[in-house]
């Protein structure tokens, strides 16, 4: 079976071999491929119910328009968060992975690990669904951090999990418990303007050891993860499973571009590998195992959260316009009084 979604003419890796999904699968089956390095992004979790960032209209950044942010990414920029953390907390509940289940794409990674083929996963996602699907933690780098812990952005003091959950559930900003500090608490996700985990530089070298790179559900717009696929050695196959072509995919003769959903892509891949039944069974059990977090049950939708904070910000703007008008009229009255006073000649 060949991949229906290959978008470029079949390329030749060696003089006599076409590189496509089928040939990659047969190299896995005959043991030529044993180290698969994976890079994932938000598109792998959209089927779990978390919108990605940059898809037009459905992505988070377009949907934040009612908030009139200076630019959409500001919501995740440390310098913006340091003075205006409200928008982040307004949407935090709708982005929190509390009640999300892993997708079949996450489970495909767990199956690669079970088969001793998974060399490493770099994920830009903070939802932890790779781990929920069964990928061993020592095989994952959460390049953009995760929700598991939190600290004051200013003094770095820790903050209790139960209070954090409450803040997220209620959409309220949690503040540092040290009264003299007053900084907002931030989950340990990596914001723009912050450094990636130190481990990243070390783990990056694993890409050079890959004999297959699989990239799923990312626009490859954010460095440094965006540079990982380019580090793969020439001659090594790279598979992209994504709604759109991205990065330099398609430039190498060993590239296989499967444009479409991640879930369809991994099912096709599993079919080629003869793993389909095993994959579906593993996915069912991963979904059953992950319980719901009561703290996040019955929360508002993303658009409801955005509408709520937009109206609060509107109110605040009205108040500050009100203050501005009051000040202006106060100052102009004062000025009028000063101007009306006769000028003293002495
Ligand atoms: P993006 O939203 O930039 O890209 C998601 C990609 O996945 C797009 O190319 C979509 O077309 C594709 N996509 C969406 N749903 C899909 C599906 N079901 N199947 C296949 N493809 C799908 O998200 P990332 O590349 O992950 O960082 O974004 C990288 C970083 O930018 C994020 O970690 C976040 C963001 O700002 C921070 O917040 C620091």
UniProtKB/TrEMBL annotation:
First-level EC class: transferase
Highest rank taxon of the organism: Eukaryota
Every Deacetylase sirtuin-type domain range: 14-276
Cofactor section: Zn(2+)
Pfam families: SIR2
Binding site for Zn(2+): 152, 155, 176, 181
Keyword Lipoprotein (UniProt): no
Matching SUPFAM superfamilies: DHS-like NAD/FAD-binding domain
Stated name of the protein: NAD-dependent protein deacetylase
């Amino acid at each position: 079976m060949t991949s229906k979604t290959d978008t470029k003419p079949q390329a030749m890796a060696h003089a006599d071999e076409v590189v496509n999904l089928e040939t990659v699968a047969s190299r896995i089956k005959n043991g030529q491929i044993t180290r698969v390095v994976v890079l994932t992004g938000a598109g792998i979790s959209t089927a779990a119910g978390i919108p990605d960032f940059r898809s037009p209209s459905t992505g988070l950044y377009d949907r934040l328009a009612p908030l009139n942010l200076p630019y959409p990414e500001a919501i995740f920029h440390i310098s913006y968060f340091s003075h205006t953390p409200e928008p982040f907390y307004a949407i935090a509940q709708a982005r929190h992975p509390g009640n999300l289940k892993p997708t079949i794409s996450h489970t495909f990674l767990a199956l690669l690990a079970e088969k001793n083929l998974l060399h490493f996963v770099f994920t830009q996602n903070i939802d932890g669904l790779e781990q929920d699907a069964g990928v061993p933690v020592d095989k994952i780098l959460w390049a953009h951090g995760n929700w598991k812990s939190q600290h004051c952005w200013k003094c770095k003091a820790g903050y209790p999990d139960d209070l954090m959950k409450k803040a997220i559930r209620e959409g309220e900003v949690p503040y540092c418990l040290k009264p003299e500090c007053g900084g907002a608490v931030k989950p340990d996700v990596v914001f723009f303007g912050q450094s990636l985990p130190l481990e990243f530089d070390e783990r990056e070298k694993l890409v050079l050891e890959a004999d297959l790179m699989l990239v799923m559900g990312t626009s490859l717009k954010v460095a440094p993860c965006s540079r990982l696929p380019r580090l793969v050695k020439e001659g090594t196959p790279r598979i992209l499973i994504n709604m759109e072509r991205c990065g330099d995919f398609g430039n190498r003769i060993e590239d296989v571009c499967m444009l479409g959903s991640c879930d369809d892509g991994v099912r096709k891949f599993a079919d080629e590998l003869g793993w389909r039944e095993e994959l579906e069974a593993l996915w069912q059990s991963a979904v059953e195992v992950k319980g719901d977090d009561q703290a996040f049950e019955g929360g508002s939708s993303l658009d409801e959260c955005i509408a709520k904070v937009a109206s609060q910000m509107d109110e605040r703007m009205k108040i500050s316009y009100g203050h501005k008008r009051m000040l202006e009229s106060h100052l102009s009255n004062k000025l009028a009084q000063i101007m009306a006073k006769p000028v003293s000649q002495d």
